[in-house]
Amino acid sequence: MISQRQIDLVQHQVTLTYGSADAEVYKSPVGIPYLKEPGVVLLAQTATYLGGLRRFLKGLGDEYEGYLNDDVPLDSGSALCKFAGQLCYISLGEKRTKNIDAERYFNNIKDQKHGSVLEHPVYTFLFYGIDRAVTHELVRHRVGKAFSQVSQRYVGPELLRYVMPAELQSDTEGEAIFFDDIQLNKERYARRIEYMMLRHSSLPEESKTDKRKRMQSFARRALANEVEAPIIMSGNIRSWRHVFTMRCAHGADRAIRTPMFLGLKMLQAINSTGFEDFSTYQLPDGTEAAKPEYVKV
Q1: Is 90 exceeded by the pLDDT of residue 6?
Q2: Pairwise CA distance, residues 89 & 79, whole Å
Q3: Domain spans of the chain?
Q4: Would you say the pTM of this structure is higher than 0.85?
């Protein structure tokens, strides 16, 4: 099991290497907060306790108890997947594939497309510093995923943050256009809320909070796609492999490729077998992409 300290170190190392796992918040000339890069936080992972198998293994016979005495430890996710795969054949005795050969074992699973055993461990990320255009794409990956995203009917103008597209950064004129646009957008959103609050009476037994929520539900339609939309995504190894295959590819939108690439690098650092076949390469614009050796496992 990887500790929280080890996860924090992975996060820090990815930040040092790729520069944006921890995203900085900036202010426009009129004080509107915005971000230039995505932030990626690994929140949770499946914990595996193989010690609980002792009675089950003993019931199979004395030779099977040695399964718990492997000299090479695996990370929690890999250990769970390996046991799941070996359970299918009761390949748990002395002739089983040992942990020292886990990479070969998992490469064979991926090559044979027996990816169901990769569905057991789950990893959860918070992605922030990404906008609504990005999350509209992410939530299309429904299989094997769970999502919790900010609801803008609860977000007033004072809490809005925006995301500056990479294409406008380091471009004085482009940044000025962005600053003008987000100021106008925020003002339009606030104006709609104010107008609706004055124009519409409260419903019977409706609290002030419920009325504001109702008005913001209407007003949010004026918000630009550049509004930040933090989202939590949970997924198993198989589903993350699919997302990374699609969204870390060279043809993926840079705004979605960047946070997914960071997520891939974190999982490569803490899971020794599920993502090691992804290779990275640099693109002409200086960003990086990744592709797997094994697809559709």
Answers
A1: no
A2: 16
A3: 50-119
A4: yes
